Amino acid sequence: MLPYRAVLWFTLILVMLPPQAGFARPVSADSTRPPARSGDPSVVRVEGDTLGAPVRSKSPTTAMILSGVLPGAGQVYNASYWKAPIILGLGVYFISEWLDNNRRADDYRQKYDLSLHTLPPYGNTRLRDLREFYKDQRDSFTWYFFILYVLNIVDAYVDASLSGFDVSPALTMRGLPTHGLTVRFTW
Known about the structure:
Radius of gyration: 27 Å
Strand order of the largest sheet: 1-2
Shape: elongated
């Protein structure tokens, strides 16, 4: 099992990482959003943006902190609502399996310890094997939960960093020189 302090330090380091401003590419504002105020700090204007519209971007640090405190909260912050129940569901499943395997490993440990007194010197080896099996299963679910927790934070960070990318189907290029060069594709 992982030491509790190691998990806390790793989480603290991930949470304290500064957001990398160079990752996000701002895009034009969505027509469904209300127009931004000029003094709004979350609005970013981009040089060379042909539409000149303000862009609202998400904070990667805030998304990471929310996901670190409550898995799935960073996804809700990033408006990826469908991811939150998946993360929470897997987390609850991994924890419940960990608890069940831990209980069974403890039961078989007690039974094996009693069998050492009745069947010396090795006791009931079947009980020992079952104890080891459930301990291994418990340790596996510890790793599964840890991996889910880290991926949850990484997903929130990446989603917030990429929140400014334009993914609309109406991407156009403006300002291209037209010096008599025409390219046509035919089938």
